[in-house]
Amino acid sequence: MSNPRLQDIQTAVRLLTDLSRSTFQGRYADCEAIIAQHLKDGSAFLLELIKAAVEAGVHQVTLIEDAVSFLDDADLARLAFFLQSAASRGTDVEDLLSHALLQAPELFPDAALATSYDFADWQQHTDLRSAPACKHFIFEGGSPSDSPFPTHRNHPTWHLPTTGGPLAVGGRGSATCPVCRQKLTHLVTLDSSEEKSVPGLSIETCANSLEPTYYSHDAEGRPTPIGPFHSDDGSAIEPASLVSTVRVAATPPRWLRQSYGISNSRQNLFRLGGLPSWVQGPQFPLVPGTDREMKFLLQFDSLAGFFWGSGGMLYVFWDEESRITCHVSQWT
Ligand SMILES: [Zn+2]
Fold first, then answer.
1. What's the pLDDT score for residue 73?
2. Which domain of life is it from (predicted)?
3. Does 191 lie in the same domain as 299?
4. Helix (H, G, I), strand (E, B), or coil: what is residue 257?
C-alpha cells in the first residue's frame, strides 16, 4: 500500500481515537471525507482501514461498519477471516460480523450464523445460506430526494442496475379511507406484464393508520379499503404528495438479506419480494377469516415522502386467492 494511503489510514484512526467530545462531529466528518476520497480506488484501502480500526479498538462506529458494504468480494472474504480470528481472540467485533454475515453468509460456519441476531428470524430456513429472490426499487437519480445526508446516497443498494420501464412511487391514490376521509397515499402500481413474478396491483394505503389495514383489489388491481379499519385519533396527516420515479432491479446475492437495525438509514430498503427487513420482528398477517398466512409482497422505508409511525417501515402482504393486501407498519 502506498504511503499517502497509509497516512490517510493513520489519520482516520487518529481522528476516531480522539475522545474529546466537543470536536467529535468535526472529526467524524473529516474521517468521512477521507473515506469518501478512497471509495473509488477499489476496496484495498477500506479493508486496511477496517483492520486498523479494529486493532486500535475504534471500530464500533457506523462509519467503519458501513465501509464493509464497499469491499469487493475478495476483500470481504479476507475481512470475514480477519473478524473470525479477532472474535476468537476475544475482541468485540459483533457489529462488523453482523454486516459481513448478512452480505456473505457462505463465508461463515453454521455456529457463527446461529449466534447472529439477524439470522434468528431465518433459522427456520432449511438452508441459511440461500435466501429467496428479491428485487429493489431504484430511484431515479440514485436515492430519494429527501435522503438526509449526501454520504447516505453512496450505498450500493441505491445504484443497482435496473431492468424494465419507469414506475411512479408516491402521490395521491384513487380511493378514500372510510375512517379519516383522506385520500389514500399511492405507494406503487405494479405491472405484471413487466414483472412476471408480481401481481398487477395498485398499492394504496392510509398514511394515518398505525394498525394493520386490509384492502381488497378488483380485477384491474384497484384497491378498496376493507376492515379492520384504523382508529380515528384525530391526528390526520396530509398524504404524501411527493412523486418519484423508480425502476426495478434484480437484487444481487450480497443484498438479499438486509437488516433494518444495521442498515443505518444508508441502505435502500425499498424492496419487492424476498425477506422482509423487520423493525420489530416477524409479523405475518392472516387472511381475514382464515388461518392462511399472507405472502410478503413489498416494503417501503420512511423516505421519498413516506413516514411510517415514528419513522419505521411499511410492509405489504398479498393473498392471491382473496385478492387482499394487508399493510403493516413497524417502527422503533
Ligand atoms: Zn385513514
1. 95
2. Bacteria
3. yes
4. coil
Whether residue 192 lies inside any domain: the answer is yes
pTM of the prediction? 0.92
Question: How many structural domains are present in the chain?
Answer: 2
Instruction: Work out whether the CA dihedral 119, 51, 263, 26 comes out positive or negative.
Output: positive
Q: Where does the chain have alpha helices with state H?
A: 3-17, 24-38, 44-56, 62-67, 73-88, 94-103, 110-115, 260-263
Q: What are phi and psi of 98, to 5 degrees?
A: -60, -45
The secondary structure of residue 306, as a DSSP letter, is: -
Cα of 184 vs centre of ligand 1, distance in Å, is 7
| Same structural domain, 86 and 163 | no
CA of 212 to the centre of ligand 1 (A): 12
Closest residue by Cα to residue 104 from 116, 90, 88, 87:
116
pLDDT at residue 118 is higher than 80? no
Give yes or no: residues 199 and 313 share one domain: yes
How far is the CA of 329 from the CAs of 110, 240, 307, in angstroms? 32, 16, 10
What is the Å distance from ligand 1's center to 197 Cα? Answer: 30
CA 236 to centroid of ligand 1, rounded, Å: 8
Q: What's the alpha-carbon Rg for the chain, to the nearest Å?
A: 21
130 falls within a domain? no
pLDDT above 60: residue 6: yes
**Nearest Cα residue to 64 out of 232, 322, 264:** 264
Tell me, yes or no, whether 7 and 84 share the same domain.
yes
Q: What is the pLDDT of residues 147-203, one digit of tens each?
A: 767 677 889 999 999 988 899 999 999 999 988 888 999 999 998 877 777 889 999
Domain limits for position 176: 135-330
